[in-house]
């Protein structure tokens, strides 16, 4: 006998579990199916983000940052320690415990909101009436029928052609988050978000880290001035980043990994490392969905094709998050999940792609919203720019971290904020003010006239807004 639901959500990552909760809040009878298991075989909802993405990576970034501070910066504060040592297995165990708290938290939220959770792999099957049902293959087999189906099956790490992940020497994000001891030498391919975050973790813990990047420019999606400032810091820290490389043969037959590549000058190079992380982007995941059998349309990248409202080509089937177009970010997936649940309930769901913030949680952190200076130039938009360095911010001095700046880009005529770009301490938190401002179509003058607490890092935001009109007060 099939079980009937108003809404069936496939995948309990940030896109899926949030869609399920919002639909339940709106009075729908909701099922959510997720395949992820703990090593003990129990459910581990939360998707990539909770299990092998956002949350565990930030846990390791925090631990490794504490370690580096204890080693390098405590003495500046007059704190004397003995020898500072790192117990990597304890750090990994702490990270695992945080992941488990998040898994359990989502199961609790499902109960609280009366979402029925199924642990298993969901696939579309053709029903006798010509429609489709959802089969769940888990401990027990179930067949579910839903008026509306939301696909939120996420993404997987992209492997280099001919070099599958073995998660021992050739690691995806999954393996990179559970290395048992600090490798002496770590190589990473791809100086994108994962390459920089994971490279930072293991460098701070003492690995000699080399990141090989195919593109000639560093972080080309980031405002050039900000990317340059960040690169300067990474160079100083000893995070070796080589741009414009072409990866050749990768030999894993020895004790470690031997990597042949040509550098930007076209010279043949060999890099030997104990482990290699491949972080060259992610591919949408529709594995096991049986999408073809029901005619669910995919694009050439394997992403589910959706319209602006996240509707697929099949009636009553929606898709959100990493499995569709747009940035592969947890908060984008969540916003789409909420919007789809609200549309299903007859409301007006809304996602503003122009104000989705990006954050790279390195040290210094990098954060931005809106268009970069190079994009504005390419779009032929007349703009004014203003920036303020953390060097001139009292709170940053007290923190002992004066790296970086806040930069505003505003329309030359109307003064509307077009982009805000930051590199420096805690900018992951500071960027929210810029997101709110842009969502409300604020001008740089609006921010410049708002009272900001002193001493706070957020004063750098106000000062950068003042700088647009060339009237910074503290620089
Ligand atoms: P996912 O989180 O991938 O969830 C999909 C779920 O669907 C999974 O649980 C999967 O098991 C399940 N599933 C798949 N197929 C089926 C099926 N057929 N049946 C049942 N279940 C199925 N983003 C940020 O915004 N901030 C960050 O700091 C950040 N850090 C990251 C760090 C790393 C190392 C990585 C890899 C990613 C990071 N991301 C970050 C990206 C973020 O994790 C993703 O954008 C986000 O998880 C996408 O959410 P989703 O719900 O679309 O998919
Ligand atoms: P990415 O797209 O951020 O970076 C991939 C990098 O690899 C690019 O710089 C690209 O030029 C390079 N590259 C691609 N092919 C290559 C090749 N053959 N040789 C050398 N270099 C090559 O992808 P990444 O780092 O894998 O992360 C995937 C996604 O996960 C991110 O785009 C982001 O959406 C999400 N993520 C978000 C985080 C955050 O919000 N803080 C943290 C980590 C991941």
Automatic annotation (TrEMBL):
<dbReference type="InterPro" id="IPR001100">
    <property type="entry name" value="Pyr_nuc-diS_OxRdtase"/>
</dbReference>
<feature type="binding site">
    <location>
        <position position="322"/>
    </location>
    <ligand>
        <name>FAD</name>
    </ligand>
</feature>
<dbReference type="Pfam" id="PF07992">
    <property type="entry name" value="Pyr_redox_2"/>
</dbReference>
<dbReference type="InterPro" id="IPR016156">
    <property type="entry name" value="FAD/NAD-linked_Rdtase_dimer_sf"/>
</dbReference>
<dbReference type="InterPro" id="IPR023753">
    <property type="entry name" value="FAD/NAD-binding_dom"/>
</dbReference>
<feature type="domain" description="FAD/NAD(P)-binding">
    <location>
        <begin position="5"/>
        <end position="337"/>
    </location>
</feature>
<feature type="active site" description="Proton acceptor">
    <location>
        <position position="454"/>
    </location>
</feature>
<feature type="binding site">
    <location>
        <position position="281"/>
    </location>
    <ligand>
        <name>NAD(+)</name>
    </ligand>
</feature>
<keyword id="KW-0547">Nucleotide-binding</keyword>
<dbReference type="GO" id="GO:0006103">
    <property type="term" value="P:2-oxoglutarate metabolic process"/>
</dbReference>
<feature type="binding site">
    <location>
        <begin position="328"/>
        <end position="331"/>
    </location>
    <ligand>
        <name>FAD</name>
    </ligand>
</feature>
<feature type="disulfide bond" description="Redox-active">
    <location>
        <begin position="49"/>
        <end position="54"/>
    </location>
</feature>
<feature type="binding site">
    <location>
        <position position="213"/>
    </location>
    <ligand>
        <name>NAD(+)</name>
    </ligand>
</feature>
<dbReference type="InterPro" id="IPR004099">
    <property type="entry name" value="Pyr_nucl-diS_OxRdtase_dimer"/>
</dbReference>
<keyword id="KW-0560">Oxidoreductase</keyword>
<protein>
    <recommendedName>
        <fullName>Dihydrolipoyl dehydrogenase</fullName>
        <ecNumber>1.8.1.4</ecNumber>
    </recommendedName>
</protein>
<feature type="binding site">
    <location>
        <begin position="153"/>
        <end position="155"/>
    </location>
    <ligand>
        <name>FAD</name>
    </ligand>
</feature>
<keyword id="KW-0520">NAD</keyword>
<keyword id="KW-0676">Redox-active center</keyword>
<comment type="similarity">
    <text>Belongs to the class-I pyridine nucleotide-disulfide oxidoreductase family.</text>
</comment>
<feature type="binding site">
    <location>
        <position position="58"/>
    </location>
    <ligand>
        <name>FAD</name>
    </ligand>
</feature>
<keyword id="KW-0274">FAD</keyword>
<dbReference type="InterPro" id="IPR006258">
    <property type="entry name" value="Lipoamide_DH"/>
</dbReference>
<dbReference type="GO" id="GO:0050660">
    <property type="term" value="F:flavin adenine dinucleotide binding"/>
</dbReference>
<feature type="domain" description="Pyridine nucleotide-disulphide oxidoreductase dimerisation">
    <location>
        <begin position="356"/>
        <end position="465"/>
    </location>
</feature>
<dbReference type="InterPro" id="IPR036188">
    <property type="entry name" value="FAD/NAD-bd_sf"/>
</dbReference>
<dbReference type="Pfam" id="PF02852">
    <property type="entry name" value="Pyr_redox_dim"/>
</dbReference>
<dbReference type="GO" id="GO:0005737">
    <property type="term" value="C:cytoplasm"/>
</dbReference>
<dbReference type="GO" id="GO:0004148">
    <property type="term" value="F:dihydrolipoyl dehydrogenase (NADH) activity"/>
</dbReference>
<feature type="binding site">
    <location>
        <begin position="190"/>
        <end position="197"/>
    </location>
    <ligand>
        <name>NAD(+)</name>
    </ligand>
</feature>
<keyword id="KW-0285">Flavoprotein</keyword>
<dbReference type="InterPro" id="IPR050151">
    <property type="entry name" value="Class-I_Pyr_Nuc-Dis_Oxidored"/>
</dbReference>
<keyword id="KW-0963">Cytoplasm</keyword>
């Amino acid at each position: 006998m099939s079980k009937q639901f108003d809404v069936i959500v496939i995948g309990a990552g940030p896109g899926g579990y949030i869609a399920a909760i919002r639909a339940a809040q709106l009075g729908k009878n909701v099922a959510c199916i997720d395949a992820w298991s703990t090593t003990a075989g129990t459910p581990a909802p939360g998707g990539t983000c909770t299990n092998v993405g956002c949350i565990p990576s930030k846990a390791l970034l925090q631990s490794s940052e504490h370690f580096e501070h204890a080693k390098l910066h405590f003495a500046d504060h007059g704190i004397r320690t003995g020898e500072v040592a790192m117990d990597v297995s304890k750090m990994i165990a702490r990270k695992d415990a945080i992941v488990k708290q998040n898994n359990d938290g989502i199961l609790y939220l499902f109960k609280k909101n009366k979402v029925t959770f199924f642990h298993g792999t969901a696939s579309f099957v053709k029903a006798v009436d010509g429609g489709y049902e959802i089969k769940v293959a888990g401990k027990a087999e179930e067949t579910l029928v839903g008026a509306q189906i939301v696909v939120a099956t996420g993404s997987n790490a992209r492997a280099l052609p001919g070099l599958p992940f073995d998660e021992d020497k050739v690691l995806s994000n999954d393996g990179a988050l559970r290395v048992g001891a600090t490798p002496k030498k770590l190589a990473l391919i791809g100086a994108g978000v994962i390459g920089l975050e994971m490279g930072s973790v293991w460098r701070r813990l003492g690995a000699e880290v080399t990141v090989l990047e195919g593109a000639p420019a560093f972080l080309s999606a980031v405002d050039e001035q900000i990317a340059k400032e960040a690169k300067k810091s990474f160079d100083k820290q000893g995070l070796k980043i080589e741009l414009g490389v072409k990866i050749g043969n990768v030999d894993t037959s020895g004790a470690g990994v031997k990597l042949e590549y040509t550098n930007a000058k076209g010279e043949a190079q060999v890099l030997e490392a104990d482990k290699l992380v491949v972080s060259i982007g992610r591919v949408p995941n529709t594995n096991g969905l049986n999408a073809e059998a029901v005619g669910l349309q995919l694009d050439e990248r394997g992403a589910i094709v959706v319209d602006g409202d996240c509707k697929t080509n099949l009636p009553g089937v929606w898709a959100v998050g990493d499995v569709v177009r747009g940035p592969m970010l947890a908060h984008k997936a969540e916003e789409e999940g909420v919007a789809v649940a609200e549309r299903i309930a007859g409301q007006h769901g809304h996602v503003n792609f122009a104000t989705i913030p990006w954050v790279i949680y390195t040290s210094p952190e990098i954060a931005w919203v809106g268009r970069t200076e190079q994009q504005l130039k390419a779009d032929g938009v007349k703009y004014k720019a203003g920036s303020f360095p953390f060097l001139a911010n009292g709170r940053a001095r007290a923190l002992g971290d004066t790296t970086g700046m806040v930069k505003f880009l505003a329309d030359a005529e109307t003064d509307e904020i077009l982009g805000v770009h930051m590199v420096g301490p805690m900018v992951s938190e500071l960027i929210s003010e810029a997101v709110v401002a842009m969502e409300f179509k604020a001008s740089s003058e609006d921010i410049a006239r708002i009272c900001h607490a002193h001493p706070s890092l957020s004063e750098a935001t106000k000062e950068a807004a003042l700088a647009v009109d060339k009237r910074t007060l503290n620089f």
